[in-house]
Structures are given as structure tokens and as C-alpha cells.
Write a structure and sequence with these properties.
The complex is a heterodimer of chains A (443) and B (179). Chain A is mainly β and 443 residues long. Chain A folds into 3 domains: 40 residues, no CATH class; 124 residues, TolB, N-terminal domain (Rossmann fold); 264 residues, Neuraminidase (6 Propeller). Chain A has 5 helices and 31 strands. In chain A, strands 1, 2, 3, 4, 5, 6 and 7 form a 7-stranded mixed beta sheet that branches. Chain A starts with a helix and ends in a 5-residue tail after the last strand. Chain B is α+β, with helices and mostly antiparallel strands and 179 residues long. The longest helix of chain B has 21 residues. Helix content of chain B is 39%, strand content 15%. In chain B, strand 2, helix 4 and strand 3 form a beta-alpha-beta unit. The N terminus of chain B is likely disordered. The chains are: A mainly beta (443), B alpha+beta (179). Chains A and B meet through strand 15, strand 16 and strand 23 of A and helix 4 and strand 3 of B.
Chain lengths: 443, 179
């Protein structure tokens, strides 16, 4: 068994029973030396990319660092520092001296080259090697773009390496929209911001003059739905990410509207409207007027579409406490799927379709959890004073959520966790942040 | 329009306060320094009770401080307690006696519970207070509701002592619109 195949086997175990890895599923012996829940991260080396011209030299080390941070940040890989290297990579060659990488136990080796033109075009090339198999893993690839997009190109290289070694979909080249927070707890200022998935390149999308809540990306990542109090009442707006222009969602009447989410078609929107003491779920199709999908006198909110657009999972307190339900996307009889102790909210359907992530409140603690779409195999991944609002990475393997500390000085931060419950990490940001929503993988 | 410019300005200040933070409503500068500020509300029926040295019964300050602008709720509940009904009935009488004002009823939740659920719960609480006020005879057109969910706590500790004060409906008096 090669080490890389061992990692694949480990991932299969890690994600059981959710992972689909057909080529390995019957490969029983591969799992022998893997203890479920314990994985030795796969050691890799990513020498500084070779600068093919002086302008490219400015980016060589930075590209390698972002790639290394992406991979090591998953908890599935461990970087071998350059001080351990026996040989240096001085040219971008299809042949490498495997023995010298074996000697330092680098099981994966990533080599690359970078060049830049005077007018700001960057070209990044890379190869991945399975050192112990003495073979290149997949073909070499090349990305081109502007020098300002150098981090994105690094993420794309890391995405390719991650996908080739794990068999999973990519997610590093993605962004997150969130609510940036300042001020004390009883005078919180909130504004929309967007960042790279790893907390870099924060940009603000709105001012902090009104409360803004719970932004959601369109399936193409070019638009954002969110709730704002700019009229004094909660109302849903749609914001164009490129132009930062916003328009209110056309909803007649004076209902308060919130908890919006796009359908997979990117045009239809589901949301909650509250009026007269009752909150129900509505759907707004392009050019249409809102259609009411639930009619119960209880609270129905936080709708989220299945990836095929056929069903909605949402939160309702019709049983007396907030629980999760699934109904057809056109409305109809809901089926309750949460039956554990406590209260369930903010369900979000995985982009893979297999799981539903949620917030659970039980015995004075909050958890982020996942369950199958029939409610079975519930697993709580986190626990704290207040964990809330999971959002899926584009590959359905990682969740981001907000964690708020307790008391007068309580502050919100963003965290990520694997669906296995491993690798809980705080997203490095200056200042407090809440309500993350992950974009699709960028093109 | 029979109101003085001063009252209109007062109303704007109050309305702005309502939009940003209930806790600031009626703070310094919102009329409290002017002993006459309370006279702006048309002709209070109980004008004989007005004392130049305190805020008049027809003033939003009187409403907030003497009648009481808020009622509290049990966890997850929007049902009005007996004392809440008493407070809201008194609020309703004040509104009936001071017809030039309107009110926005804010519904709030404590920090337990998710953002979305608490928005719905806050609306339920505000609506519960509004319905009782309408039942007491206040014209429904003078009352709007808004939910803040858990966005605007007035107490910041993370224990039941604070949660209990944050689970509230606050009646914020505003200048009459179009009357």
C-alpha cells in the first residue's frame, strides 16, 4: 500500500458511512493499519516554486506558502519544512530525485514554477509526485491570471493536489461572505464583508449604519441575499458582488422578511415572512409574487434547498420546540427528521446531498451537527456556549460556523470543522465575525 | 398641523432612537431637559395634572418612565402575563388619550436560540402585545411591530438574570404620521 493510498483509505474510514470511494470500497486490506478517528497526516514537501524570471521571483515563495497552508490546514497533510530538504528544486522538471525525498519521508512532493510579465500577467505551473511510488500523480497543470490574483492561483494548485490525493472535490479557491462586527454587545455594529475562505483579502460590502444579518451566496457566487434593517424593519436585499449595488427583494405588504436562500436555479428565493405573530416560509419565483409554502400558526423559518431543488429542509416549532422538517419544494406535508433531545435550527443541505448540517441547543450548550436526510446517524461535531449557523464548503467535507463567547465581553468568531468532527480551527480575522456563508468553488 | 416645531423634532429624535437602539430611546436630549416638552401632544385629557416641574402625563417620557414601556416574557413564550396585561392596558389608555402619537412595538429575544428563530419569536412577542393593545381599543393603524430577535440585548451578562430582561416587548412612542 502506498502512503497516498493509505490516506485515501483513511479518508474513507473517516467519512464512513458518507464517503463514496468505489475504487477502494472493497479494498479491505488497505484499512488494516488505520484506526478509525485517528489519522497520521500525510507528510508533503512543497519547495519554493522556481522563478522563471525576476518578476516571477516575487511570488515564488508566497505561492508555495499558501499551497502549504491550504494543505496543512485540512489536518490531513503535514508540511515538511525546507530546512529538512536534502536537495533543492532548481528547475521545473518532470523527473525528480525520489531517493532524496524518500529519505526525509516526503510522501507527496509538489513542484512548480512561476513567471510574470511586465503588464502583470502571472503564469503558475505545477506537478505532484507520489514519492514512494516514484510516479507523477496526474498531469502537470498551468494557471494564468493577473498578478493580483496570485493567491487564487495558489489555491487552485492546492485544490488540484488535494483532489488528486484524497479523491474529494476541491474547496480552497472559494470565498466566504460574513457579518463583520464591532462594538460592545449592547451596541453591536454590523456590516457585510467578504473574504477568501482562509480569512485573507477581507473587503466590506456595506456600511455599519444598519443591522445586517445572515448573508447567503447565489449558486454562481455573483449575488448575495441578506437581511438589513435599513428601513427600520428587517427586509431582504439582493446585492451584486461585482458592483456592490443592492435592491430590496420585491415583497408586497409590510411583512418583516428574513432567512432568505437561493434555489439551485439561482433565481428562485425562499425566505421567511413574519406578520401578525406568525412566521411562515414563502417562495418568490422570477417575475412572480410570493407563494406561501407553509400555513401552520407555528414558526417556520430557515429554509434550505436540497441540491436538486426538489425539497426544502426547514425549522418549525409546531411540535412545541424547534425541530427540523423536510417538505416538497412546492410545499406540502412536512416530515419531521430531528428526534434527539433538545432544539434544532438552521438546517443546511450539503452540496453533496447526503447530509444536513444544523445548530442544536441542548442542556445549555450549543452544537454544530450533521445528520442524514432521513434524520438518522446524528453526530454532534462541536460544543460551546454558542455555536450557530453552519455553512458547507463547496465539497461538502468541511463546515464553517460562528462561535460566540459568553458574558458581557462576548464576541463572535468564525470556525471550521470537518464533518468527522476533527480539525476544529478558528478562521484568522481581525475583529469579530458572524453568520458565514461559503461560496461555490470559483471558476 | 397643530404641533409645534419642537414636538416634531422631538418625534424625529424618538423615531431615530427606535431605529437604532431601544435602550437609547428617551435618553438625554430627547426632551427631558425641557419642562415644556410634554405639552406637545395636542390637548391631553388630563391636562390638569400637568406640573411644570415634572414631565407631563402626555409626554413620551411619562409613558416610558411612569407607565412603563416594556413587558417581559418567559423562555420561548409570547403569552402575556397578568402584570404584562396590566402594563399594556395602561399603555393603551395613554395612546387613546394621546391620539397624536403612534407606537412601534419592538419584540426581542434573549441570546439562547438561533438568529432566525429569535427573529420569529420577537415578532410573535411584539404581535402579542399589539393584539392586546388593539383589544383595549387602540386603533390598529397606529401600531406597528418590529422584531429585533437577539440583536439588541439591553443586559449583556449570559445568565438568566439578564436573559429575563432581554425577553421583552418595548412600546416606543413616535410622532403621529399623517395625522
Amino acid at each position: 500500500m502506498t502512503p497516498i493510498r493509505a490516506l485515501l483509505a483513511a479518508l474513507t474510514l473517516l467519512g464512513l458511512p458518507f464517503t463514496v470511494a468505489p475504487s477502494l470500497a472493497q479494498d479491505g486490506p488497505l484499512r488494516i493499519d488505520i484506526t478509525e478517528g485517528v489519522i497520521e497526516p500525510l507528510p508533503f514537501a512543497v519547495p519554493d516554486f522556481v522563478a522563471e524570471d525576476p518578476a516571477g521571483g516575487e511570488y515564488a515563495a508566497r505561492l508555495s506558502q499558501v499551497i502549504a497552508d491550504d494543505l496543512a490546514g485540512t489536518g490531513l497533510f503535514r508540511q515538511i519544512g525546507s530546512d529538512a530538504f536534502i536537495t533543492q528544486i532548481t528547475s521545473f522538471s518532470p523527473s525528480v530525485d525520489y531517493a532524496s525525498w524518500k529519505a526525509i519521508n516526503a510522501q507527496a512532493l509538489i513542484t512548480g514554477a512561476v513567471s510574470a510579465t511586465a503588464d502583470g500577467r502571472l503564469t503558475v505551473k505545477f506537478r505532484v509526485f507520489d514519492v514512494f511510488s516514484e510516479a507523477q500523480l496526474g498531469e502537470g497543470l498551468q494557471f494564468g491570471g493577473t498578478t493580483t490574483a496570485w493567491r487564487r492561483m495558489a489555491h487552485k494548485v492546492a485544490d488540484a493536489v488535494y483532489s488528486r490525493i484524497t479523491g474529494e472535490g476541491a474547496y480552497f479557491d472559494s470565498r466566504v461572505v460574513f457579518v463583520s462586527e464591532t462594538g460592545p454587545k449592547d451596541d453591536r455594529r454590523k456590516r457585510l464583508a467578504i473574504m477568501d475562505y482562509d480569512g485573507a483579502n477581507v473587503q466590506f460590502l456595506t456600511g455599519d449604519g444598519s443591522i445586517v444579518l445572515a448573508p447567503r451566496f447565489s449558486p454562481t457566487g455573483d449575488r448575495i441575499l441578506y437581511t438589513s434593517y435599513e428601513t427600520g424593519f428587517p427586509q431582504i436585499y439582493q446585492l451584486d458582488v461585482g458592483s456592490v449595488q443592492r435592491v430590496p427583494l420585491p415583497v408586497p405588504g409590510d411583512s418583516m422578511t428574513f432567512a432568505p436562500r437561493y434555489a439551485p436555479d439561482g433565481q428562485t428565493v425562499v425566505f421567511s415572512a413574519a406578520s401578525g405573530g406568525n412566521t411562515d416560509i414563502y417562495r418568490l419565483r422570477p417575475g412572480g409574487t410570493p407563494e406561501r409554502l407553509t400555513t401552520s400558526p407555528s414558526i417556520e423559518t430557515a429554509p434550505s434547498y436540497s441540491p436538486d431543488g426538489a425539497q426544502l429542509v426547514f425549522e418549525s416549532d409546531r411540535s412545541g420546540t424547534p425541530q427540523l422538517y423536510i417538505m416538497p419544494a412546492n410545499g406540502g406535508e412536512p416530515r419531521r427528521i430531528s428526534f434527539g433531545d433538545g432544539r434544532y435550527g438552521t438546517p443546511v443541505w450539503s452540496p453533496r446531498g447526503d447530509l444536513i448540517a444544523f445548530t442544536k441547543q441542548n442542556a445549555g450548550r450549543f452544537h454544530i451537527g450533521v445528520m442524514r436526510t432521513d434524520g438518522s446517524e446524528e453526530r454532534l461535531l462541536t460544543a460551546s456556549f454558542l455555536d450557530e449557523g453552519p455553512t458547507w464548503a463547496p465539497n461538502g467535507r468541511v463546515l464553517m460556523f460562528m462561535r460566540e463567547s459568553s458574558g458581557a465581553g462576548g464576541q463572535s468568531s468564525l470556525y471550521t470543522v470537518d464533518i468527522s468532527g476533527r480539525n476544529l480551527k478558528k478562521v484568522p480575522l481581525d475583529g469579530a465575525a458572524s453568520d458565514p456563508a461559503w461560496s461555490p468553488l470559483l471558476k | 398641523m397643530k404641533y409645534t416645531g419642537k414636538v416634531i423634532v422631538l418625534g424625529l429624535v424618538l423615531a431615530l432612537g427606535a431605529c437604532t437602539n431601544a435602550n437609547r430611546f428617551g435618553g438625554p436630549g430627547a426632551g427631558g431637559t425641557d419642562p415644556n416638552a410634554g405639552f406637545g401632544a395636542g390637548d391631553p385629557l388630563n391636562s390638569t395634572g400637568i406640573d411644570q416641574s415634572s414631565l407631563g402625563a402626555g409626554s413620551p417620557e411619562y409613558f416610558r418612565q411612569t407607565i412603563g414601556d416594556r413587558v417581559l416574557f418567559a423562555v420561548d413564550q409570547s403569552t402575556l402575563s397578568d402584570s404584562a396585561r396590566t402594563t399594556i392596558a395602561a399603555q393603551a389608555q395613554w395612546l387613546i388619550q394621546n391620539p397624536s402619537y403612534t407606537a412601534i412595538i419592538e419584540g426581542h429575544a434573549d441570546e439562547q436560540g438561533t438568529r432566525e428563530y429569535n427573529l420569529a419569536l420577537g415578532e410573535r412577542r411584539a404581535s402579542s402585545a399589539r393584539q392586546y393593545m388593539v383589544a383595549q381599543g387602540v386603533d390598529a393603524g397606529r401600531l406597528r411591530t418590529v422584531t429585533y430577535g437577539k440583536e439588541r440585548p439591553i443586559e449583556v451578562c449570559s445568565t438568566e438574570a439578564c436573559y429575563a430582561k432581554n425577553r421583552r416587548a418595548v412600546t416606543v412612542i413616535a410622532a403621529g404620521l399623517g395625522s
